[in-house]
Amino acid sequence: MNIYFLRISHFIRVIHAALTIVIAGMFVSSACFAHDMPKSSVLLHYRQDHVLLELRLPIDRLEIATGMVLSKSSDTFEKQRDALGSYISRRIQARGEGGDLWKVEVESLQPPVSVNIDEVRALVRLIPSRKDESLTDLSLRYEVILREIATHVAVLSIQTDWDRGVLANQPELIGSLGFNEYDIHIRRGNSSRFAGFLGMLDLGVEHISDGVDHVLFLITLILSGALVAENGRWKNRGSAKGTVLGIMWSVSAFTIGHSISLALGATKILILPSEPVEIVIAASVLISAIHCLRPIYPRREAWVAGGFGLVHGLAFASSLSVFNLDPSHLISAVLGFNFGIEVVQIAVVLAVVPSLIILSKTPGLSFIRFAVSILAGSAAIGWLFERTIGWSSPFTIIVDKLPKHAFEIASCLFLLSIACRTLFQLRLASLNKKQRLK
């Protein structure tokens, strides 16, 4: 009997040990799968006469591959630049349609730009052997890190291709290299002369549509343009012609302002840090909202709109800086992007102005002005806190979702304006009737 119990006890211990090993293995494997190995990114930028590779290389894997201890300090990294550039150029090979080798030049190397980014960035220029050679076919052999670390993976994508309308906001994934696979053949699709322009137009539409601060500033401009200051207070213009002309002056000045600074910023003639620009934009919304409540710069709305437009244009220009476009494409890019912005501005004007014209002879315009001013001012205060001290207001999170309901908001505004006009006319008719009876 004792032997029987001993055997059962031994069997239980064996099962317990086996389960422990299995469970531990599950935790180890799940931890391994949960932590992805860092990958390299190879971003292709097609230019008129060459292809630019933008490499983003994990610094720890790059150190293993090169045997170098890479510094995050710019001064120390500068001393390692030549050796690192030589390593990268030896690990990249490109051939064109005819099979001739292309020239490989390391254009720039950049250490990690912040403490939170552990990658080295490099720009590598692939230059065809003949000036008239097409960029349609590219056979790329890429071995940076991959040859030394067999488990490393490099993900390739086309980041910008102007002639095909491929832009940084919608890159085109090509494939990946690794596990002793170093070669890839890249064939470009059909190109069009206007593809890049149309792509920039779409980007401009998307940028201004998502930019609630720009749209709210525009709406406050439209509202103040529909009014006239008299004795320190707002008064309805009363006529459709006066309302339209007042709005046109303010909106046109804003358009001219942001178009000038967009061109200057995109060509890098005028460059300012994005943080102070975003803070000034939030302040512009707040000032314009206060002006809608009570005139603080009467009869100077167009000048103020143009001045703030210069600041808004610098924010628009920062969206173009990520593309590293050829100078030959820059003019088309600015025109396309700006045209996209204007399309949305015109849509906002067409959605709002008819309602304001209907309301121009009613007290309802004052109610709309007050509601929009409070909304814009509250959102602007939230953006100021967010862009200065990093505090996110729950109210601004709600406001940021308003563009998704733009059609419904415009429709409600139009119906409200008709209702206000109808009630106002009925009240006037009732008062006139009473006066006649007297």
TrEMBL record:
Q: Which InterPro entries match?
A: Put_HupE_UreJ (IPR032809)
Chain segments annotated as transmembrane: 215-232, 244-264, 270-290, 302-323, 335-359, 366-385, 405-424
The signal peptide here is: none
Assigned keywords, A-Z: Membrane, Transmembrane, Transmembrane helix
UniProt superkingdom? Bacteria
- Answer whether the UniProt record assigns the keyword Membrane to this protein: yes
What is this protein identified as?
Answer: HupE/UreJ family protein
Tell me which species this is from: Undibacterium nitidum
